[in-house]
Amino acid sequence: MKTSACVLKDLLRFQKNEITESVVYSRLASIEKNPDNKRVLALISKEEGLHYQILKKHTGKEVKADFRKVFVYYWMARILGVTFTIKLMESDEKSAQTTYNAYQEHDDILRLADDEKVHEEKLIAMINEERLSYMGSIVLGLNDALVEFTGALAGFTLALNDAKLIALTGSITGIAAALSMASSEYLSTKTAETKEKHPVKAAVYTGIAYLITVISLVSPFMWISNVLVALAAMLCIATIIIALFNYYYAVARGESFRSRFTEMAILSFSVAGVSFLIGYLLKMFIGVEV
Q1: pLDDT for res 127
Q2: For residues 229 and 207, is the Cβ–Cβ distance under 8 A?
Q3: Which residue ranges make up each domain of the chain?
Q4: What pLDDT digit, counting tens, does each position of 49-85 carry?
Q5: Rounded distance, CA 41 to CA 218, Å?
Q6: What average pLDDT does the chain have?
Q7: Average pLDDT for residues 224-237, to the nearest whole number?
C-alpha cells in the first residue's frame, strides 16, 4: 500500500498513541480494585495493543510508548480518578477516526474507528467509581458554598469594612454552615428510598467540599487589608473553583462544560451582587460604622 508522507505521519502518531494507551490501561488495571473494572481495563489494553499491531503492518515501523503520557495519566488516575482520566484520554482518539476512514479498501484499519466507539461504550458501562457515586454530595456542598459565600462575603465587605473581621465572621459562619450541610446530607441520604450512598460518606463528601470552598473564598481577606481588593480576589478564586470543578464534572459525566460553568457563575455572582447591595443598604439604614 502506497502511503503519502502526510498520512504516514498521521498513522505513526496514532500508532504511538495506541501503544501508549495500551500501557496506560494496563497500569490502570493494575491499580483498580473493582474486579469488573479491572477486567474491562485489561481487555481494552489488549485491544489497544492489537490496534498498534494493525497500524504497524501499514507503517512498517516500530514505535515506542510515550512514557511521559503514561506517567501523567497514571498519576492523574490516582489523584482525580480512573473515570476522569479514561474519558479525557479517549477524547484524544476521536481525531484518528477521520484518518482511519480514509482507508476504505482496508477492512482492518476501518475496524479501528468502530473499535474506538466500542471502547467508549465499554468504559461508560464499566464505570463504578465511588467518588462519582458521591458526585451529587460534592456538587451540593460546592454549589451551596459558592452561592452562599460569594454573597455573604460580598455583604460583609460593605457592612463590616474590615478585612480581618470579615475573615473571622466568614470563617465562623462557614464552619457552622459546613457542619449544617453535612448533617442535612446525612439525614437526607439516610431517609432516601434508594440506598446507593452511605449516609456518613455522603455527609463527609458534602462537608469537606463545603469547607474547602469556604477556606478558599475567605483566604483573600486574611492576607489583603484592602477589602475591595480582597473581594475582587475572592471572586477570581470563585471563578477558578467553578471552572475547575465543572471541567472535571463535564469530562467525567460527558456533559457540556460551557453551560454548567455559565449557569453556576451567573448564579454565584448574581447573589454576590445582590448581597453587596443589601450590605450597603443595611449599613446605611442601621447607621453602623465599623
Answers
A1: 61
A2: no
A3: 5-128, 131-286
A4: 888 888 888 788 888 999 999 999 999 888 888 878 8
A5: 42
A6: 79
A7: 90
Using CA atoms, how far residue 18 sits from 11, 82, 252, in Å, is: 10, 18, 21
| pLDDT tens per residue, range 100-154 | 555 555 566 666 666 666 666 666 666 666 666 777 777 777 877 887 788 788 7
Orientation of helix 82-91 relative to helix 67-80, angle to 10°: 140
Q: How far apart are the first and last CA of the chain?
A: 81
CB 104 within 8 A of CB 151: no
- Are 272 and 150 in contact by the 8 Å Cβ rule? The answer is yes
CA dist., res. 74 & res. 164, Å (int): 42
Angle of helix 5-31 versus helix 82-91 axis, rounded to 10:
170
Residue carrying C-alpha cell 474519558: 87
The one-letter amino acid at 114: D
- What phi-psi label fits residue 192: left (phi over 0), alpha (psi between -120 and 50 degrees) or beta? beta
Give the torsion through C-alpha atoms of 239, 240, 244, 250, to 10 deg.
20
